[in-house]
Amino acid sequence: MKKKISLLCLTLATIGMLAACSSKSASTGQERETKSLTFVSNFPSDTLDPQLNYTTVRAGIAETLVKVNEQLQIEPWLAKKWKTEDNGTTWIFEIRDGITFQNGKDLNAEAVKHSLERTIKESEAMKSALKIKEMKASGQILIITTTEPLATLPSELVHPNTAIIDVDTSDIKSKPVGTGPFKVASFKPDSEMKVKKYKEYWDGEPKLDEVVLTFNDDENARTSALQSGEADIVYRPAIESLNTLKQDSSIVVDIQPSLRNQMLFYNSRQEAFKDKNVRKAFDVLLNPTDVVNTALAGQGSPAAGPFLDSLDFSNDQKTKTYGPSEAQKHLEKAGYILKDGKAIKNGKQLSFKLVTYPYRPELPLMSQMLQSEAKKIGVKIDIQQVENMDEYMTTKDDWGIVTYSLVTAPRGDAGYFFNALYTEGGAFNVGHFHEPALASIIDELNKTVDQKQRNKLARQAGEIAEKETLHSSIVHPNNFVAYRDNVKNWVTAKSEYYVITKDLDVK
Predict the structure, then answer these.
(1) Rounded to whole angstroms, how far apart are CA atoms 335 and 320?
(2) Confidence band for 194, pLDDT divided at 50, 70 and 90
């Protein structure tokens, strides 16, 4: 008889709570035990299309040509090796032999070409990032020519949106076919997905037979699922529960500094935020230490810039004075006067919409703190929570500030951040800023291979962004995961790209 090892099916009830479903019935005969694991996260997944969502890579369904390791160095994955013949315009990738998609089709350069063609067709952000002019495929060799020298092309191909899939699959949104250790068994948007092992996986048979992945934006519900045994791994349990979880001998709590930055994005299409003095006012309004202690319950650190201090391309720490009185000085420079408790300019009070989202619960808290402090300097902020922040901030201009959590250096390099935020077509260029000096440095950064020179250019870019206050870096949150002590080989990936792996196991 099969021995059940944490084989549980979780669904989301309409009230957002988790409920356990019955497990698969045991079969007769002498068979080995079934190994299954349940993972609960706050990652919303309304589609499995890798061009629109990271879940396909996180769940071990699809893989990219290049990956990033825990030392934040890029290394081969589906591509065995690569080189450039002309310092960044022509790239030659050799695709590994012996890899098949989960439907049995061989992975060759032509299949990779078709997948990347779909990527740049479906995603304007990836089209901008990859800058592909043309691709040629022959056997296992893929030649990519870019529209301009792009020294970071291999790094760009780490991005989960470049995951390689069989484009001839009929239902990419709910059942994409990749090359990873697990294939999709079922998918319920924004609720639950089940994946089963792909026994012919090229890098060795996965240790787990199946994994159930569920989404819940209620951190307390996620925590309860772990404590009750309904979940084996919970990504980001409630912050206030961490000490309690640590005292439970059957649970392991893993806390790591993350590459994330909880930030303020400003919208330059709103008249007030065209003035950098207004942006500077909000840059110093919140004390990051207060945000760490209040919104993050101590699980994080103040941010002096978008990158962790330990990274070679981060800018030197600069001392700032924070608080309403300091913010008021910048508003005065922008022409606002405090009258009857209101910041007035041209007869109108400074007011705007701030947009945030719930599945990072510290962001609504940070938004409320900003709203409260803004009131002290006569600024009226209306807060709106949205479910799909990426769609909202890229398609609407009715907001002045958004609070956002961004992994700023997922590949151990600054190029991703500056290209995403401050180049035309960048995935997070929602502020619509155009600084010629910054654009020039980013252009040079994209052409530069030498890492020391890249770090120097990144620091110069950071100084311009800081001087012009094109964004505000508030805090670096810790990344924390809790799991049952029967889970083996879990790794809290710094990049947050790799979650369900072939090595993940249960005792």
Answers:
(1) 22
(2) very high
